[in-house]
Amino acid sequence: MDALELLKHDHRMVEQLFRDYHAAYSDEQRRGVAELVVRELSKHAALEDLDELGRLLDEAKRVAPTRPHPHAPEEPPALTLAAPLAAAYDRIRDRLQRRPRT
C-alpha cells in the first residue's frame, strides 16, 4: 500500500471512528473511541509530515550547490543570491564531467 492509499484509508477509518463516537452510549465507550481517534490522527499527521519533508528535501536538492564552496558568503542576503548561482554552475560542471546525479 503506497502512502496516498494509506492516507485515504486512515481518513476513512477516522471518519468511521467519529461515527462510532457519536453512536457510543457511555462515557467509557466515547473515551475509548477518542483515544483511537487521537492515535489514528497522530499516525496520519506523521505520514503527512514525512511526505512534506520529502518534497522539501527534493526542492532543496534541486536548488542547492552540489559541492562545498569555501569562499561563498555565509550570511543573507549574499548567500541567498550566491547559492542558486553556485548550484547552476555545479550542475553544468557535473554534466560536463559526466558525474552521476544525486
TrEMBL record:
What domain of life does the UniProt record list for this protein's source? Bacteria
Recorded protein name is Hemerythrin-like domain-containing protein
- Species this protein is from: Streptomyces mashuensis
